[in-house]
Write a structure and sequence with these properties.
Helix content is about 40%, strand content about 15%. The protein has seven helices and seven strands. A seven-stranded parallel beta sheet has the order 3-2-1-4-5-6-7, sandwiched between helices. It is of the alpha/beta class. The mean pLDDT is about 95. The protein starts with 9 loop residues before the first strand and ends in a 7-residue tail after the last strand. The longest helix is centred in the middle third of the chain and has 26 residues, at about 110-135.
Length: about 260
């Protein structure tokens, strides 16, 4: 397996205090990247040491900044500071997301607006600011910069009981394609990773019924693998899309769902 695939690359990862974003930031740092975490919180939902502490303990390079991705001025300032400190922005990972767990009738306007602000406007802000910066940079391995958006299988199929989340992730898939189509000829690579059921946070608090449903729908949850997804599964896919090994791919939505949408 190749090592140091992101050596000396500057990588911003949003929502990296916990879960999937935490795994991506950790993996990128292990591959030699200078990681910049944008997240309003520092303590992981799953408990334990912060992502910054985790990466530093492994000898990685990391800096964290409290940023609300739904606020353009905060995203703009964070990227500007990152480039001023490290000289470039090579990879932008738009991962930050929230959910309500409510269906159409139970979702208030405030719930809807809050999810769209983080999950969709946050991706818009991250893509826009990344493209602005990347267009000023010289290409490395056929790309001026790479954007990796974290979508979801629920951007492709219905999200039972959480309409706002599903719609926001469908929008993330579309933004990915649009950015790729508009800027590929100018050296911007924009792809997405679509996780299926990934066990993050306090797994002991997950409803047993929903776990049973996820296992029944996921082919790879049966024997011999016998498990649902882990954050590292998504981090591996994000690493590929962020690296020079990802060639002649743009606008793709890479499914990491254990075969759910194929079944």
């Amino acid at each position: 397996m190749a090592e140091n695939r992101l050596q000396d690359r500057v990588c911003v990862v949003t929502g990296a205090a916990s879960g999937i974003g935490r795994a991506i930031a950790h993996r990128f740092a292990a591959e030699g990247a200078q990681v910049v975490i944008l997240d309003p919180r520092s303590d992981p939902v799953e408990g334990g040491e912060s992502t910054v502490e985790l990466i530093q303990a492994s000898g990685g390079k990391v800096r964290a900044q409290a940023v609300d991705v739904s606020d353009w001025q905060q995203v703009d300032a964070a990227v500007t500071e990152t480039v001023a400190e490290y000289g470039a922005l090579h990879v932008m990972v738009n991962n930050a997301a929230i959910y309500t767990g409510t269906d159409l009738l139970a979702t208030s306007e405030d719930d809807w607006d809050r999810v769209m602000a983080v999950n969709l406007r946050g991706v818009f802000n991250g893509c826009k600011r990344a493209v602005q910066q990347m267009l000023t940079q010289e290409p490395i391995a056929e790309a001026r910069g790479r954007i990796v958006n974290i979508s979801s299988q629920h951007g492709m199929i219905a999200c039972p009981g959480d309409i706002a989340y599903g719609v926001s992730k469908a929008g993330t898939v579309y933004i990915t394609r649009q950015v790729a189509a508009d800027y590929a000829a100018r050296g911007i690579v924009c792809n997405a990773v679509a996780p299926g059921k990934i066990l993050t946070g306090r797994t002991d608090a997950i409803d047993a019924g929903s776990l049973h449903y996820a296992r029944s729908r996921t082919p790879m949850a049966g024997e011999p693998l016998g498990r649902l997804g882990k954050p590292d599964d998504v981090a591996n896919a994000a690493l590929f899309l962020a690296s020079d090994e990802c060639t002649y791919m743009n606008g793709a939505n890479l499914m990491v769902d254990g075969g759910w949408t194929a079944a």
